[in-house]
Specification:
Number of strands: 11
Domain Lipid/polyisoprenoid-binding YceI-like: 29-198
Pfam families: YceI
Distance between the termini: 24 Å
Protein name: Polyisoprenoid-binding protein
Family: Belongs to the UPF0312 family.
Strand order of the largest sheet: 1-4-5-7-8-9-10-11
Organism: Streptomyces resistomycificus
CATH architecture: Beta Barrel
Length: 201
């Protein structure tokens, strides 16, 4: 089922009356549960393999509207010092002035500006991604994975998402040329999200 009711543009009154009450019940404010969520990324290394990483320290909130996708929103704050690629040396380099300059820019943020249903369990959210003091639009395709009440009484919703960026657009331009041609680190970065969020009381 889709978290967003789909409106018939020719008959919004009938469409509103036909909204599934289970979907409408999901409307509300949620807090992202970082212990059960992942904010990850993938970069091409030396033109031959993928290096995966994630951020371990982040927080965020969602406002979901089960009947009107345009009324939904999301906000995420990430502590850049929490970057983890499985290599302490590589993580240190990513935190340095060559990349994220975490001493000067300790946070990365995303603030949504619009949301829309794409049909079924799919929807799209667009917002402003800020890195290194540079803010540019980012569009994320999301799949709604469902809703459930956990054994502790928390009402949860889950989403998976993906997006792609060119890191150079945010000023992340460091690279090294390879003798065989090409560069050490790809400009294109794949982003992936696995989000579990708890409904606020």
């Amino acid at each position: 089922m889709s978290i967003f009711g789909r409106k018939d543009s020719t008959d919004t009154t009938a469409s509103a009356a036909a909204v599934n009450p289970d979907l409408a019940a999901l409307t509300g404010d949620y807090s992202i549960d970082p212990a059960h969520s992942t904010l990850g990324f993938v970069a091409r290394h030396a033109m031959v393999t993928n290096v995966k990483g994630r951020f371990l320290d982040f927080s965020g909130s969602l406002h979901l509207d089960g009947t009107d996708p345009s009324a939904s929103s999301a906000s995420i704050d990430v502590k850049m010092d929490s970057i983890d690629t499985g290599s302490a040396d590589r993580d240190g380099h990513l935190k340095s002035a060559d990349f994220f300059k975490t001493d000067e820019f300790p946070a990365m943020t995303f603030r949504s500006t619009s949301a829309e249903a794409l049909g079924g369990d799919d929807y799209r959210i667009t917002g402003d991604l800020s890195i290194l003091g540079v803010t540019k639009p980012l569009t994320i395709d999301l799949e709604f994975n469902g809703a459930a009440k956990d054994p502790f009484g928390n009402e949860r919703v889950g989403f998976e998402g993906k997006a792609e960026i060119l890191r150079s657009e945010w000023g992340l331009t460091w690279n090294a040329a390879l003798e065989t041609g090409g560069v050490l680190v790809s400009d294109k970065i794949k982003l992936n999200f696995d989000i579990s969020a708890i409904k606020n009381p």
